[in-house]
Amino acid sequence: MSSTRTPDTAAPPAGVDPQVLEAESKKWTPTRVIVWVAISLLGAVAWAVLAISRGETINAIWFVFAAVCTYLVAYRFYAKFIERKVARPDDFRATPAEAKDNGQDFMPTDRRVLFGHHFAAIAGAGPLVGPVLAAQMGYLPGTIWIIVGVVLAGAVQDYLVMFFSMRRGGRSLGQMAREELGVIGGTAAIIATLLIMVIITAILALVVVNSLAESAWGVYSVGLTIPIALFMGVYLRWLRPGKVMEVSVIGFILLMFAIISGRWVAATAWGADFFHLNKTTLAWAIIIYGFVAAILPVWLLLAPRDYLSTFMKIGVIVLLALAILVVHPSLSVPKVSTYAFREDGPVVAGQLFPFLFVTIACGALSGFHALISSGTTPKLVQKERQTRFLGYGGMLMESFVAIMALVAALSIDQGVYYAMNSAAGATGGTVEGAVKFVNSLGLTGVHLDGGTLTELARNVGETNIVSRTGGAPTLAVGISHIMHQWFGGTAMMGFWYHFAIMFEALFILTAVDAGTRVARFMLQDAVGNFVPRFKDNSWRLGAWIATAIMVAAWGYILILGVTDPLGGINTFFPLFGISNQLLAAIALAVVMAIVAKRAPKALWVVIVPLAAAVVITTAASLYKIFSPVPSIGYWAQNAAYSQALADGKTSFGTAKTVEAMHAVVRNTAVQGTLSVVFLVLTLIVVVAAIGVTVKSLRTHRVETTEDPEVPSRIFAPAGLIASPSERALEREWEAYTAVPDAVGAAAAGSSPAAGASDGASGGRSGSQGSAGDAEGRG
Amino acid sequence: MAAIPSSGRPRSTGGAGSPGGAGAQGGARPVIATVLRPVLAVGRYLNGVLGGDVYQRYLEHRERTHPGEPVLSEREYWRARHAHEEAHPEGRCC
Q1: Is A234 near chain B, with CB under 8 Å?
Q2: Which residues of chain B lie closer than 8 angstroms to A373, CB-CB?
């Protein structure tokens, strides 16, 4: 299989001598000292301003400085420390991408390109929605958690999961859990992952439903993305295969047209009528869409929409970052609001601890990333030392997105914020009701009048913005508020609002579709243990049944959410955060078991975030299960409503009918049960991990689950910018590969893609062993 | 995209397929190059992130490992790739 040529001994080394690298990173030239002192000082000043500001307003620019300077210091020093003590990457060792290169899913990829690719896969609606909801507690708690959380927890998890998965040929988190934690821990981890995917898909879908309900413009333009994606799919399949960039640009132009024309359509009587859908109808539409999308061929809908989604994601984030720098809005928000210490917050119930930490999951610590950091990205990493940039750096980038979302949410008027994010049960869904409710909260500096709400609704092209919960509409108002000061003025607010809604809806729909597919495979794999036929992925009927089961699972929770008399998002969002952090706890538990074997002295690097994740999620789950306060405890709420029903009441709290009261009883029972299940599963995994860790610390067990070492025959720098020694080696390689004879030496471990046949190339003889055949590992 | 180099020449990095941002390219278009280069570089970068260059990289991979042997056409490659993705779905995060 490998090249017939003998390894060329004249080839330059595959990495810079570690001692040279070490000396290079420890060499403190005066310029370097000045740069790092400046970064640290700027960061310290920004933090000081955020923490001790006593003014009425605070400028958004300080958030950017505090975040970026902290990220730089953490990346340079803490991530470097982890690299040196825990990961210990070795560039002389081939990555799976190099060793198993098949021109398909294993392919060494330029680090800067892979960074963008990885970032697009991990960052979605999560880091945008959580910070918006957590803005209720004031700006400081959310900011600290997003920045400190990512440095000590989120980025550490992403980095180490990526590194260990890379050392194991790109194995998935589930497979690593089974190997490291044994059968019980591994099985619990897989069940938890499956459940979590269901919850996350349901709640993301709920966010979309809430942002599109009763919005003819939104439904029209987001709906149009489906035919646009289908067109792109057909274009790539038959007209111009492989012209990805070209079709993405065409798709993007069509997308802009969909947004702009939405205003005209929504202004017509038939348009307003036809596209004006209520939440339940929309929920059913998404459920049907989710099923159909997940069984359609990948090339027809998923792949093209993914291009659009990636395009929009990178574009909007760059645009928003520039806009925040240019506009640098002043925010008039309390540093720490009264809801940080109260249990009756109208946006999310519960005090700062633990509820801030589960409301903001993505952006600080997101377990879901472990599923991307294992499996997908590790198969594309060129050199081992690049994982710090990709894993740690990629997560820092997502954290920055969360900070920008927080700034956008904080930039809008506080009264408007509460009017948009309080449940319809509290505001009645009307402007008068919202004004009355918000002004009755008695918050200092918050006064709302109806005119503001009606005018804002008109400016963004919506009929009503009261109780548009879920975070996405608030973020869209925030983005439009910032962007219109830069481009287009008030006349453009509607465009920017719907641009932001489109941007979120696009990648949520992609996540729903992709999540359903992944969950379907996991289900087929699990059921296949009992009914072997289900393991056969090419069995159409089995695939459809498994897809239907997964869609039914998240669809059920979605329907519960949209019909929830208590507001839906308010009661379901904590489950999203808790489950995401539980997955983080599971991922970190697996990492701990591995680190105990290879770097016991630096185990605290993993124990710190793991302990945080376990304490936060356990506390939050316990509150959700046992709190006697009905707005927090699911079972307390359940008991209160059951009692009211038993007493023969026909209306209770925000539930105005007996039917609604029954709905609350049912929903809280589902939520309460899920909380219990999550808690139990996580405790099983963590206990298993502690057991394995203690055992390896005692016995100094060194056996490894890593793949055997293969020498590397390629070189590329580790970080964004090459160091002097890396640049020198790069030049050596360039000179070496310029010599024709040397070609092929780099062809270590080749692969069987497109097997040989004597047919003319391009011939359709089918003997070309499709590139897909190369796959055999799971 | 016209920005993709069309030769299957080997690269020092053995697969840094997508010519990412920095201009390692020789100046082929001398006049408009200065103006166009950053735009093209961004275009190439985005194309790489979207995965638009994978066929090119597949060709380079084949050239390196099985020189002179037949390869899949672009159409066939993409069909195989999508069939593979069908059987190995990748999650998208929240």
Answers
A1: no
A2: none
Q: How far apart are CA A248 and CA A244, in angstroms?
A: 6
Residues whose CB falls within 8 Å of the CB of residue A364, separated by 6 or more in sequence, listed in order: A145, A146, A149, A150, A153, A154, A357, A399, A402
Can you list the alpha helix ranges (DSSP code H) found in A563-603?
A: 569-598
> CB neighbours of A683 closer than 8 A, spacing ≥ 6?
A618
Q: What is the Cα–Cα distance from A296 to A275, expressed in whole angstroms?
A: 25
pLDDT band of A4, cuts 50, 70, 90: very low
Residue A112 to residue B71, Cβ atoms within 8 A: no
User: Does B13 sit within 8 Å of A113, measured CB to CB?
Assistant: no
- State residue A56's pLDDT score: 84
What's the average model confidence in pLDDT over A719-741? 89
B83: contact with A, CB 8 A cutoff: yes
Model pTM score: 0.91
Residue A352 near residue A141 (C-beta atoms within 8 A): yes
Percentage of the residues of chain A whose pLDDT score is greater than 70 = 93
For residues A748 and A741, give the distance between their C-alpha atoms in angstroms, rounded to a whole number: 16
B42 touches chain A (CB under 8 A): no
Bridge partner residues of A59 (DSSP): A330
Q: Which residues of A touch B19 (CB under 8 A)?
A: 110
Q: For the ranges A223-232, A284-293, A431-440, A646-655, which has the lowest average pLDDT?
A: A646-655
Query: If you average pLDDT over residues A551-576, what whole number do you get?
Result: 92
Tokens at A47, concatenated: 């933090």
Chain A window 711-740: which residues touch B at a Cβ cutoff of 8 Å? 713-716, 730, 733-734, 736-737
Least confident among A642-651, A702-711, B43-52: A702-711
pLDDT at A772: 34
Q: What is the pLDDT of residues A248-306, one digit of tens each?
A: 999 999 999 999 999 999 999 999 999 999 999 999 999 999 999 999 999 999 999 99
Contacts (Cβ under 8 Å, ≥6 apart) of A131: A142, A146, A360, A363, A402, A403, A405, A406, A409
Q: Is the pLDDT assigned to residue A145 strictly greater than 80?
A: yes
Contact (CB<8Å) B90/A763:
no
Residue A652, classed as helix, strand or coil, is strand
Give the minimum alpha-carbon distance from A745 to chain B in angstroms, rounded to a whole number: 9
Count Cα atoms within 13 angstroms, Cβ side, for A91: 24
The mean predicted confidence, pLDDT, of chain B is: 75
**pLDDT band with cut points at 50, 70 and 90 for residue A701:** low
Nearest to A502 by CA among A186, A257, A304, A778: A257
Q: Do B50 and A297 touch (CB under 8 A)?
A: no
Backbone dihedral angles phi then psi of residue A676, each to the nearest 5 degrees: -65, -45
Q: What is the DSSP string of A405-443?
A: HHHHHHTS-HHHHHHHHS-HHHHTTSHHHHHHHHHHT--
Contact B1 A744 (CB under 8 A): no
DSSP for residue B51: T
3-state secondary structure A729-776: HHHHHHHHHHCHHHCCCCCCCCCCCCCCCCCCCCCCCCCCCCHHHHCC
A109, A125, A537 ranked by CB distance to B18: nearest: A109
- Count the residues in chain A: 778
| A613 contacts A685 by C-beta, under 8 angstroms | no
B8 touches chain A (CB under 8 A): no
* Nearest residue in B to A368, CA atom: B93
Q: Report domain extents, chain B.
A: 30-87
